[in-house]
Amino acid sequence: MAKPKYIYNAETCAYEPFFLTGKQRLNKSIRFVGIAFGCSIIAALWFNFNFKNWDEIKKKKKNQALKAEWEILEDKIHNTDSQLSIIESNDDDSYRILLDMPRLDEAVRKGGTGGSEKFPLLSNERVTLIEKVYGQLSKLKNRLTVERQSIAEINKEVNVKEEMMVTRPAMQPIDNRNLTTLHTIFGLRLHPIHHEWKNHNGLDLVAPYGTPVYASGNGNVSVAKMMGTYGNVIFLNHGFGFETRYAHLSKFNVSEGQRVKRGELIGFVGSTGLSEAPHLHYEIRYKDKFVNPVTFLYTDTKQSEYNKLLQPN
Ligand SMILES: [Zn+2]
Fold first, then answer.
1. 107 C-alpha vs ligand 1 centroid, how far in Å?
2. Of 120, 143, 167, which closes a domain?
3. 140 and 40, same domain (yes or no)
4. What is the secondary structure of 253-311 as a DSSP string?
5. Count of domains in the chain?
6. How confident is the model at residue 51 (pLDDT cuts 50, 70, 90)?
7. Is 115's pLDDT higher than 50?
8. How far is the CA of 278 from the centre of ligand 1 (A)?
9. pLDDT digit string (tens) for 156-180?
10. What is the distance in A from the centroid of ligand 1 to the CA of 21?
11. Which domain holds residue 14?
12. Among residues 129, 157, 180, 244, which is most buried (max CB within 10 A)?
């Protein structure tokens, strides 16, 4: 049995037991249920407004994590883009200039536009984001492909230039210590034997009989024989349009078809053919035309001597 409640009676100045009637009890119960129901509705609405449901909370957290990952990914793409730009810039503004190669066309560098993928299962907003990243990655991929091809092209050119540097006539064929005189008359001169004006197509390096003669650049011995006014002569084919000729030799140290390197001993100074005294008649031909050998002696000659040699005789 429920404990009775007490109420203060002012007339009797005492607490007296108080009992609710059945109707009062019913009203109280209805009020309680009503208030409880109301509170539940308010609580449900508040909860729904603030949190909706747990799934959504989880999705929200997941989205935040994805957003953070997304920002990291975009940073990485941006960094890669910057690094690639530096490599492209070095390629165009340094390597290609040094090797005398044309810059790559901007249109070739940019390549395709990318971002053509379709994503039917994703919302428009996500498709836009993903397409953007795919587009950026696609452009990077195209630029990398172009740069890889460009570097391969540069490497090839380096090899060609390297080969050109070692084959190009760039050394005096007689050691300066053995040289008595250097006659630099190239072009029209009064011939010392014929006493008439004739073109002199080479350089005369006067040295004692038997002085070693060296190849001025890498090449193939195309001729090594007695040949008319040249006397004993060696022709070296250097490739890239260059040929050198070494005339009036006393003796050969190479034979036709042999491959020689710059500085290799190929023969000895003599006076065979149309010659008055031991000397080396040295010629350089470029694309089947005689050129002045003096301009190819730079590596063995001091700047002051070189300038003097270039003066008209
Ligand atoms: Zn000569």
1. 54
2. 167
3. no
4. SS-TT-EE-TT-EEEEEB--SS-SSSEEEEEEEETTEEE-GGGG-GGGS-HHHHHHHTS
5. 3
6. low
7. no
8. 11
9. 999 998 888 888 898 889 988 888 8
10. 146
11. 5-51
12. 244
